[in-house]
Amino acid sequence: QNGSRAWRSFATKKFAAPPMTYISGEEMSWYTMKIIREQWVEPFIDTSKWEYFDLSCKSRDETNDKVLHEAVASGKRLGAIFKEPTITPTTEQVKEFGLKKPFGSPNGAMRRGWNGITISRDTIHIPGIKLGFERPVFFERHAVGGEYGASWKGVGKGKVLTTYWPEDEKEKPVIIDGRVLHDDESAVVVYDNPLDNVGDLAHIFFQRCLEANIVPYVVTKKTVFKWQEGFWQKMKKVFDAEYKEKFLKAGLLDKCGGELIHLISDAATMQIIRWTGGGFGMACHNYDGDMLTDEVAQVHRSPGFITSNLVGKSEDGSLIKEFEASHGTVADLWHMHLRGEETSMNPLGMVVALLGAMDHAAALHPESQAEVTKFTLSCREAVYEAFRTGNGTRDLMGPNGLTTEKFVEWVAKNLEA
Ligand code: NAD
Question: What is the Å distance from ligand 1's center to 327 Cα?
Answer without folding.
Answer: 5
